[in-house]
Amino acid sequence: MTRLPAGTLREALIDTDAIADNVRHVRRLTSSNVIAVVKADGYGHGAVRSAVAALAGGASRIGVADIGEALALRRAGIDAPILAWLHAPGASFTDAVAHGIELGISSMDQLVAAAAASAARPALVQLKVETGLGRNGLAAADLPTVFAEAARLERIGRLRVVGIFSHLSNTSEADDRAALARFHETLALAARLGLTPPLTHIAASHAALALPEARLGCVRIGIAMYGLSPFPDRTSADLGLRPAMTLRAAVAAVRRVPAGQGVSYGYTHRTSGETTLALVPLGYADGAPRAASGGAAVRIGGETFPVAGRIAMDQFVVDVGDRPVAVGDEAVLFGDPTLGMPPVEAWADAAGTINYEIVTRIGPRVPRREVAP
Ligand SMILES: *Cc1c(COP(=O)(O)O)cnc(C)c1O
User: Fold this and answer.
1) Which among 70, 18, 25, 31 is positioned nearest to 48, based on CA atoms?
2) CA dist., res. 76 & res. 2, Å (int)
């Protein structure tokens, strides 16, 4: 029986080679440059290690949501270009510009603030345009004035427009094609106003893998680089990806109980016969969602056992029948299914969510440990 290192209660193993391989795979498949998205602590995998692994796999840039995330990567020694695209209202861009962070710009106010933050060097910006997702990005009506002003600020050396980008809804191929057509119109308008930046990009993992004409020589990859599928009907293996995270815990207690034993808060489960209950020390504080209580399962000793009763803050119980499960045995919640582990999607389905949310919400109490496969 596999056991965890002595003293380890729970951990997320992060296979950084898998991240590098996944980036390599997407680069080859798409023949495009990769912006590796490591927002939200690298979707729970650790932002710095994910960025380092992605760059080793050939990513040319790093993408994050906010400037705080970008600056943390700089402080950790990541010197590759970093793009951040979601800003606090009225934020100063001084630190970001000083550290060479590329600012995703979604309004004239942000463009002006970026130019105002340029000092020793021009601010680096990428103009984000709204093409139908309904989130941030420059509105179609504002494009002529913002593009013209960006071109003027570039001419006078206050900023450099590194890219123009947008983001898709993945609602249907028709919706994504329509957004892509709007994006091409936007790029034509930008060119007429004097902006022909080196980078244009619209595809995240979904379109990068499913809509070749959206690749544009540059794709922003999040979920796929962590080895997970953005599609409900295609697995990691179908896509040639390897899941990078394994979530596991050491069985903390076992108890032989008679029939009729209620298990966990509210007794939503009662044992149907004499059986063994094993306690797994991972709870909703650690990212095992309480909503998954009815349908989730874990792998112990090569067998899969359902969660019995409610998942609590720190722990849950599995009914292992008459199997010789012992304290210290490894209980795997999810990992790489090709290695016999449950897929993270089983937990996502049980909780009524998607794989993105499960890995991203693994809590701070779960140590991440890098592993060589
Ligand atoms: C999160 C995000 C991505 C990455 O999306 P995946 O589906 O994980 O590949 C790309 N671009 C933007 C703007 C994002 O917010």
Assistant:
1) 70
2) 34
Is residue 252 located within the same domain as residue 219?
no
- Rounded-to-integer distance, Cα 105 and Cα 6, Å: 49
The mean pLDDT value for 113-136 works out to 94
**224: CA distance to ligand 1 center in Å?**
10
Check whether residue 284 and residue 209 sit in a common domain: no
Confirm if 316 and 264 have CB atoms less than 8 A apart. Answer: yes
pTM exceeds 0.85 = yes
The pLDDT > 70 percentage for the chain reads 99
Cα separation, 307 vs 264, whole angstroms:
10
Q: Indicate the average pLDDT of the chain.
A: 96
The pLDDT of residue 119: 85
Note whether residue 238 is domain-resident.
Answer: no
Same domain, 297 and 170: no
Instruction: pLDDT band for 2, please (50, 70, 90 cuts).
Output: confident
Q: Is the CB of 366 under 6 A from ligand 1?
A: no
- Crossing angle of helices 108-117 and 143-155, in 10° steps, is 10
Residue 194 forms part of a structural domain: yes
Which two three-digit tokens encode residue 153?
């600020």
208 close to ligand 1 (CB < 6 Angstrom) = no
- 197 plus 146 within the same structural domain: yes
Domain boundary among 175, 198, 227: 227
User: By residue range, what is the domain housing residue 351?
Assistant: 244-370
Residue predicted with more confidence, 116 or 372: 116
Alpha carbon nearest to ligand 1 atom 4, residue = 222
Could you tell me if residue 270 is inside a domain?
yes
* pLDDT at residue 256 tops 80: yes
Confidence at residue 6, expressed as pLDDT on a 0 to 100 scale: 86
* pLDDT for position 5: 86
Q: What is the mean pLDDT of residues 245-274?
A: 96
Could you say which DSSP state residue 258 is in? -
Nearest CA to ligand 1 atom 1: 222
Q: 289 and 159, same structural domain?
A: no
| Last residue within a domain, chosen from 196, 227, 258 | 227
